[in-house]
Design brief:
The structure is a homodimer of 149-residue chains. Chain A has 149 residues and is α+β, with helices and mostly antiparallel strands. Chain A is built from three helices and six strands; from the N terminus they run H-H-E-E-H-E-E-E-E. A six-stranded mixed beta sheet of chain A has the order 2-1-6-5-4-3, with helices on one face. The longest helix of chain A has 14 residues.
Chain lengths: 149, 149
Amino acid sequence: MPQRYATPDEAEAAYYAAFQAADLDAMMDVWLEHPDIVCMHPVGGHLLRGYPAVLEGWLHVFARELDIKLELKHVVRTVTADLAVHSGEEHITRSGDTGVSGIIRVTNVYQRTLDGWRMVQHHASPGPREPHVEAPPDFLAGGGGNRTH
Amino acid sequence: MPQRYATPDEAEAAYYAAFQAADLDAMMDVWLEHPDIVCMHPVGGHLLRGYPAVLEGWLHVFARELDIKLELKHVVRTVTADLAVHSGEEHITRSGDTGVSGIIRVTNVYQRTLDGWRMVQHHASPGPREPHVEAPPDFLAGGGGNRTH
């Protein structure tokens, strides 16, 4: 039988796909069924520990109408043979919005098991209002819009 | 030469001691000097990546008069041969306060190196207002103070 998630990146892709689909079964398939898994949602409650608590947390999240899209950016990976930590910033876009409407800072942890890589920790927290500036803003370059000098 | 931190717990103790002492040198000795270390302070800015950015972040933190005590509670450890993830809740007490004055949710990541265990990630975020209830409150038991029935 093939392993479900062959790499931490595969597990991460499955996590975000499950989130996007608000699919509780798919979400809980990504998580390791273990008493020491930990999930922290961005709203700031206590950490949820263990499979039943994590499941209940996602049940509450998926009970709301989310209608948002998450995209993980600026990912930093620390990967060893059995454990992988991915940190980054989730860019939230709401349907109808033209730009990024929110940023969540996130740390995702995956563990290698006999049945492939599974999520064991997720820590999300409110991030900055604006995305990283990828290039110098136009005004710093002395420009205005697309004008040339 | 003995390794500086023989276990993730030793590195963690050194981290909190450095924080308590507002000692930048001791703090940066705990961190691995690597371009992929990540630090997220609870205030919600962008993630700080790499040794120089992490150092600058702590410089800003220690420039303020903190006068607080942090105690890590409810720690959940996921430890493998080379990487350790500790999650928990930091209880903040301000000098003069009788109880916990704030809670920070935290994920600390340590990596084993040739020179012992070092911190490679720290993600802190605002937590709940009240600590976990460790035992049923007195009123639920029908009691009042230390009276017996």
